[in-house]
Write a structure and sequence with these properties.
The chain has 299 residues and is an alpha/beta fold. The chain has two domains: 161 residues, Multidrug-efflux Transporter Regulator, Chain: A, Domain 2 (Orthogonal Bundle); 123 residues, Cobalamin-binding domain (Rossmann fold, 3-Layer(aba) Sandwich). It has twelve helices and eight strands. The strands form two sheets. Strands 5-4-6-7-8 form a five-stranded parallel beta sheet. The chain has a three-stranded antiparallel beta sheet with strand order 1-3-2. The radius of gyration is 23 Å and the shape is elongated.
Length: 299
Amino acid sequence: MDRVKSSFSIKNLEHLSGIKAHTIRIWEKRYSLFQPERTDTNIRMYNLENLQKLLNVSLLYNNGFKISKIAKLEMDEINHLVHNITLRKSPYDWSLGLFKLAMINFDQQLFTKTFDELMEKLTFSEIFQSIFNPLMVELGVLWQTNSISPSHEHFITSLIKQKIHFLSDKIQNRPALKKDKVFILFLPNNEIHELGLLFLNYEILNHGYKTIFLGQSVPTESLSNLLDQDGNLFFVSCFTIEPNRDLIHDYLDHFTENILKKDGSELWITGIQTQFVETKKYPRIKTFSTIYDLSNHLA
């Protein structure tokens, strides 16, 4: 059963902040930067306030402040300096730390404030590719090292999905400009990793096409209900887990025979499993290394 994580080991702090555990120990001993609690076996354990302080301290330290000076500052002063730095620095430099902080504290307001500030400087596509994508990769590492709990990952992923849905809905209220293609987005049976597919739906809409978004775990047979749509049908999917290496060619053979029957229809797929596709066997199936390669193919 998932418990909300509010106590962190020094290794958790290292993974979350990027500051080595050895350095944290030195700062703690030499400058009394933290006052961690200790377990019965004398292991240091840090709370959320310690983590928040370390994230801010690491930002100051990485921007040229000496740790001896930082250690003398009150938290209000540290927060003020961090705020001033974020105003001057590139969004790529400060937003990741703020999103991680929002995740750890389950702080939706901080997430929204950070996102809105980014949208004033970047397009959503730039934010997703340059900030959200690295964040999700890092979250995978943090989850594997037990630095965060599944509830943290679900919280931040849910907020990102909300933004994509909101922005996609705004575009979808406009009539499609290009009517020669209809894009049908789905994930195969037992595939639930839909964040990339949601982003592709946004990108395709943003390029002026009509989309039909079906989401997770869609049986192949149910796609036949869409074959009477006007225009050339382009099915789009992400094969992250399924169909796996042993099943992928059987899946594509079945898909080609039963779904790609209409002239001009194609299947575009991305994801880890596409590395196992023998593309020469399937003239109406295109594979892409990343969702961004697929998105660029729209241009």
